[in-house]
């Protein structure tokens, strides 16, 4: 009887293990094989582009510690999930000493300020890299470390304007329309991350770190290299809104549907264009691709208004015509393709993309479903890890060199 009971217990235990196997694999096995595991990152808090750098590094396994000032929460806090926070008063010499000690254990430093701010604090790359030659010192700002605008404030619209690319956005004969915060994250954050990872690879050969000097204006211009190189070709040779890829053509455009939603058409190649025209119920002989663009836009726009977006999806899902729905942010995770790839998750009813790209052996894990640390939540823990005693930490808290809030913002 006892053996039978043990057998049943074993079977139940095995079922439980199997039911948790996926969770176990995702949260344990993957977590110890993440590509950036073991890299220690020290992030000086700033506006969203730099916290996004830290967020991506954390999603792929880096240990990210934020150096924060005592201040109110802002939008950038949404990018702080999965990080640790130490809150320092950098106007006090003890605060500077703490940063120096933290840098001795750091692989990467992320700094978002205007030029010379860190140098005035005696925390510039010359000082810190002399103490830790392996340190990769990454600077990300709007206009660069020197030049006419280097000390000026700016935002996404200003950077993409100076890059020259804003002149390409917008409809024919209309004012330029800025892309939604595109340049700060594509030309700023992701270009900065690319520089950091190249510096990490180079450090394996030389054993030494280097300064990664990234700025959003040059970064977005670089990501737009192909647009600039092709500006005198048939792709961008005409004024804004009259080109191949900016809404000038009837076969590369968006069209409103009967229910007030939209479809995106990218039927560039003749084979796709033929599928597109046939999907509309038209004869290809009556709708040649290269002629009468404006009149064809009107014909197609009228046709799209005759059916709902869902009805058009049913038609074009069975065709290779480069026609897709224009999805709203709150519905992308429910679309069949995204569902099949687990491309998104929801947190507090907000849809968030999972880390990209997907690595076959060491994929990232989204940290944005973890709690947001309060300012200085991990101050004592971090100070202890670099050798401060309990009595010394109490004194630093009393003289307001450091601050600590114990609870996470969920």
From TrEMBL:
GO terms for molecular function: alpha-methylacyl-CoA racemase activity. InterPro entries: CoA-transferase_III, CoA-Trfase_fam_III, CoA-Trfase_III_dom3_sf, CoA-Trfase_III_dom_1_sf. GO terms for biological process: bile acid metabolic process. It comes from the Eukaryota. PANTHER family: ALPHA-METHYLACYL-COA RACEMASE, SUCCINYL-COA--D-CITRAMALATE COA-TRANSFERASE. Belongs to the CoA-transferase III family. This is Alpha-methylacyl-CoA racemase isoform X1.
